C-alpha cells in the first residue's frame, strides 16, 4: 500500500526564462486524473446543502451546546435540523425586513455557537455575503473590516456588544443593525440609536421574520463570504470566496473520504472549537451539515476543552498542530507520572503497533489487543483507534488543498496529495537553492490552480496580482514532492533575509528545527543584512527551566522572571538550542549567538501573534527592539 503513487503528472515542467523562474510538472490527485471535480447542476449555494439535509433528517440533532448553571455544566442540549432550518428562515426574513438585500454584507462576530451557524445559513438563504469578524482581533481591526467590507448588519456575541458599540461611531455610515446572539440591555440599545443604528436581542429579531418568506434566486458565482486573513504584516486582506468554490471544497472532502476511508453520516458527531471565523472550520461544519451529522460546540474556555470532548464523545475531531502538540504533551506527562512499569508497557505497545502501521496494516488491524489494553484512553496516529490524516490549506484555497490519504502510513510527515479540485506544481526559488526540475528532489514554491481557489482580495487588485500569476496562485510555502506523490512542506519563501556576509536565511525552517528542543515552547529568530549572526527571543518551558534551577541550587526558582534573566539559565538554554540545531544539520551561520528568555508566552494582547499563532515579525521587532540591540552588543562581545 505504501509503494503506490497517489499523484499523476498532467503537464510537463518548463525551464526558466529571463522573467520567469523554472516550473515543475503539473500534478493531480490520482482520484482526479481524468478531470477535476465539478459541481452538479442542481447545486448553486451552500444553502442547498442545509435545505436538503433538513428535509432528509428533520428530527436529527444538528446543533448542540452545554449550558452553564450555577454549580455545574449541563449535558449537551440540541436543536434539530428542522428547528435550526426554521430559525434560519426567520432570521433571513428579518434581515430582509431591515433592508438587507442579496449581495449586501453581514458581519458575524463571536465564538462558535449555534447562533453563528444559523446566522451564516440565514445569509446563505438570502444570498447575503457573510463576513466573519475575528473575536480575537479587537475593536480597531473590527472597525477596519466593517468599513472596508461595508458591513450593514452584524450578528454579535453578547459580550462583544460593547466592543462593537465602542467603534460604532466610526462605522455608523455602514453598520445600521446589530443583533445579539442573546440579550441586549436598554442602555446598549440607546447607545446604538444615538449613533444611528438599532440593536436587537436574538428573540426580538426573530419576531421580525416569518416562515413564509420568499427566498431570492441563487447563483454559483455569487460571493458566499469575504474572509479577512489576520496577516503578519499590514492590514487584513479580504479573501473573496464564491459559492462554487465553497461547495466544491465540501464535495471534494466527501469524494476523498468516500474513496479512501468512509464519508461522514447522520450518526457522526463533530466537535466545534476551531474558530468559525476561519475557513477550515466553516468548511468542516458545512460538510457535516451536508452529510446530516451533529455539531457540538465547546464552551469557549480552553480549560474545559477536554471536559467538553468527554461529554460530547465526538467521532470527528479537527485540530491544528498546536492543539495536537498539547495533547501529545499531556499524554506523555500522564504516562510519565504512572511509573516505570506503565511507561515501559506503553513504549512496548507503541513500538509494536507502530511497526505494523509501517508495514501497511490499517489503523484498526495493527494492534487491536493493545488498542483495548493500553490505548483505549489515548490519542493520535498510533495511540488512538481513529484514522488520522494531516493536510494543508490556506484561506485562499478555501481550506484544504492537500490531504494525506487515510491508512497510508508512508504519508506520515507529509501533507498528502492535491484535493480532487486542485492541480499543483512547484516553481523554482533560485535564491534559496530550490530547483523544481531537479531529478533528485523537486523542491520549490507550491503553486495551485483549480475550482476551489479564491476570487481575489476585496478592493485590492494589486495584492491579487502579486499572488495570481498566469492563473496560478503562489502560496509562499516551499514544498518537496515525495516518491509516492505526496507533498512535504519544508520552508516558507516570504520569511527570508540575507546576513551581512551574503548568506540567505529561511527563518521559519530554522525556528521549526529549534522548536524540537524540549526546553522551549516558542522562539522568534531575528537577523538582518547589517549583521553577521542570528539572535532570538525564546519562551522557555517553565517546568523544564525550574527543574534545572532546582538541580543547580539556583536562588531564582521562586521568581520565573528572575530565573529567565539569570545568565547561567540563558547559557543553558542557548547551548541546548544550538545542540538541537547541530543535530538537525543547521549550518554555522544559522546557529544562535545570543538569546533573551521571555517568561510570558507570545500573545495576541501584545499583538505578537495572529489568531492562528503565526509570529507577527514586524510587531515582534518593534516590541523587542531594545532587547535585540542588547543581544547584538552581547553577541559581538562576550557571549552569555
From TrEMBL:
Keyword Protein biosynthesis in record: no
PROSITE patterns cross-referenced by the UniProt entry: AMP_BINDING
InterPro entries, per database record: AMP-binding_CS, AMP-dep_synth/lig_dom, ANL_N_sf, LC-FACS_euk
Enzyme class: ligase
Residue ranges annotated for the AMP-dependent synthetase/ligase domain, each copy included: 50-458
Record field: catalytic activity: a long-chain fatty acid + ATP + CoA = a long-chain fatty acyl-CoA + AMP + diphosphate
Keywords on record: ATP-binding, Fatty acid metabolism, Ligase, Lipid metabolism, Nucleotide-binding
Gene Ontology molecular function: long-chain fatty acid-CoA ligase activity
Source taxon at top rank: Eukaryota
UniProt key word Lipid metabolism: yes
Entries under Pfam families matching the protein: AMP-binding (PF00501)
Enzyme Commission number(s): 6.2.1.3
SUPFAM superfamilies membership: Acetyl-CoA synthetase-like (SSF56801)
Family: Belongs to the ATP-dependent AMP-binding enzyme family.
Role played: Catalyzes the conversion of long-chain fatty acids to their active form acyl-CoAs for both synthesis of cellular lipids, and degradation via beta-oxidation.
Protein known as: Long-chain-fatty-acid--CoA ligase
Originating species: Stylosanthes scabra
Source taxonomy: Eukaryota, Viridiplantae, Streptophyta, Embryophyta, Tracheophyta
Amino acid at each position: 500500500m505504501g509503494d503506490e503513487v497517489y499523484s499523476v503528472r498532467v503537464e510537463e515542467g518548463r525551464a526558466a526564462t529571463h522573467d520567469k523562474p523554472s516550473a515543475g510538472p503539473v500534478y493531480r490527485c490520482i482520484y482526479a486524473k481524468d478531470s477535476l471535480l465539478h459541481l452538479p447542476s442542481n447545486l448553486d449555494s451552500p444553502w442547498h446543502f442545509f435545505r436538503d439535509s433538513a428535509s432528509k433528517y428533520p428530527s436529527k440533532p444538528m446543533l448542540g451546546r452545554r449550558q452553564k448553571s450555577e454549580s455545574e455544566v449541563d449535558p449537551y442540549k440540541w436543536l434539530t435540523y428542522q428547528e435550526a432550518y426554521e430559525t434560519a428562515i426567520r432570521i433571513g426574513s428579518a434581515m430582509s425586513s431591515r433592508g438587507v438585500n442579496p449581495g449586501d454584507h453581514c458581519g458575524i462576530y463571536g465564538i462558535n455557537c449555534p447562533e453563528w451557524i444559523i446566522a451564516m445559513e440565514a445569509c446563505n438563504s438570502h444570498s447575503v455575503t457573510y463576513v466573519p469578524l475575528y473575536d480575537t482581533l479587537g475593536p480597531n481591526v473590527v472597525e477596519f473590516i466593517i468599513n472596508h467590507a461595508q458591513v450593514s448588519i452584524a450578528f454579535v456575541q453578547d459580550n462583544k456588544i460593547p466592543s462593537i458599540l465602542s467603534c460604532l461611531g466610526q462605522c455608523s455610515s455602514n453598520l445600521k443593525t446589530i443583533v445579539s446572539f442573546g440579550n441586549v440591555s436598554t442602555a446598549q440599545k440607546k447607545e446604538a440609536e444615538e449613533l444611528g443604528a438599532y440593536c436587537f436581542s436574538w428573540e426580538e429579531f426573530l419576531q421580525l421574520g416569518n416562515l413564509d418568506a420568499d427566498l431570492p434566486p441563487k447563483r454559483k458565482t455569487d460571493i458566499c463570504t469575504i474572509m479577512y486573513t489576520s496577516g503578519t504584516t499590514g492590514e487584513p486582506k479580504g479573501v473573496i470566496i464564491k459559492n462554487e468554490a465553497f461547495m466544491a471544497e465540501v464535495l471534494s472532502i466527501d469524494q476523498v473520504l468516500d474513496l479512501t476511508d468512509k464519508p461522514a453520516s447522520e450518526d457522526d458527531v463533530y466537535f466545534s472549537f476551531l474558530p468559525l471565523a476561519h475557513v477550515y472550520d466553516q468548511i468542516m461544519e458545512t460538510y457535516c451539515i451536508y452529510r446530516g451529522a451533529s455539531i457540538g460546540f465547546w464552551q469557549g474556555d480552553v480549560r474545559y476543552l477536554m471536559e467538553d470532548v468527554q461529554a460530547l464523545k465526538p467521532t470527528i475531531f479537527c485540530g491544528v498542530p498546536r492543539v495536537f502538540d498539547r495533547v501529545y504533551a499531556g499524554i506523555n506527562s500522564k504516562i510519565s507520572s504512572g511509573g516505570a512499569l506503565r511507561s515501559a508497557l506503553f513504549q512496548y505497545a507503541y513500538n509494536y503497533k507502530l511497526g505494523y502501521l509501517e508495514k501497511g496494516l490499517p489503523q484498526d488491524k495493527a494492534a487491536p489487543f493493545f488498542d483495548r489494553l493500553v490505548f483505549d484512553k489515548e490519542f493520535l496516529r498510533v495511540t488512538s483507534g481513529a484514522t488520522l490524516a494531516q493536510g494543508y490549506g490556506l484561506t485562499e484555497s478555501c481550506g484544504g488543498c492537500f490531504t494525506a490519504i487515510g491508512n497510508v502510513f508512508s504519508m506520515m510527515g507529509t501533507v498528502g496529495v492535491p484535493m480532487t479540485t486542485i492541480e499543483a506544481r512547484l516553481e523554482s526559488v533560485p535564491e534559496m537553492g530550490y530547483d523544481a526540475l531537479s531529478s533528485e528532489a523537486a523542491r520549490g514554491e507550491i503553486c495551485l490552480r483549480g475550482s476551489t481557489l479564491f476570487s481575489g482580495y476585496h478592493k485590492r487588485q494589486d495584492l491579487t496580482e502579486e499572488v495570481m500569476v498566469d492563473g496560478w496562485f503562489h502560496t509562499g510555502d516551499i514544498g518537496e514532492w515525495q516518491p509516492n506523490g505526496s507533498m512535504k512542506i519544508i520552508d516558507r519563501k516570504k520569511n527570508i533575509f540575507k546576513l551581512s556576509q551574503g548568506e540567505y536565511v529561511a527563518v521559519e525552517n530554522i525556528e521549526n528545527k529549534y522548536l524540537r528542543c524540549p526546553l522551549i515552547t516558542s522562539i522568534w529568530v531575528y537577523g538582518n543584512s547589517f549583521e553577521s549572526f542570528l539572535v532570538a527571543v525564546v519562551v522557555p518551558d517553565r517546568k523544564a527551566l525550574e527543574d534545572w534551577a532546582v538541580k543547580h541550587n539556583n536562588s531564582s526558582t521562586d521568581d520565573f522572571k528572575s530565573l529567565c534573566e539569570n545568565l547561567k539559565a540563558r547559557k543553558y538554554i542557548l547551548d541546548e538550542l544550538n545542540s538541537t540545531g547541530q543535530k538537525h544539520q543547521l549550518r554555522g551561520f544559522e546557529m544562535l549567538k545570543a538569546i533573551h528568555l521571555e517568561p510570558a508566552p507570545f500573545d495576541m494582547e501584545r499583538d505578537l501573534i495572529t489568531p492562528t499563532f503565526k509570529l507577527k515579525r514586524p510587531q515582534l521587532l518593534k516590541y523587542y527592539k531594545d532587547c535585540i540591540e542588547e543581544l547584538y552588543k552581547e553577541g559581538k562581545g562576550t557571549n552569555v
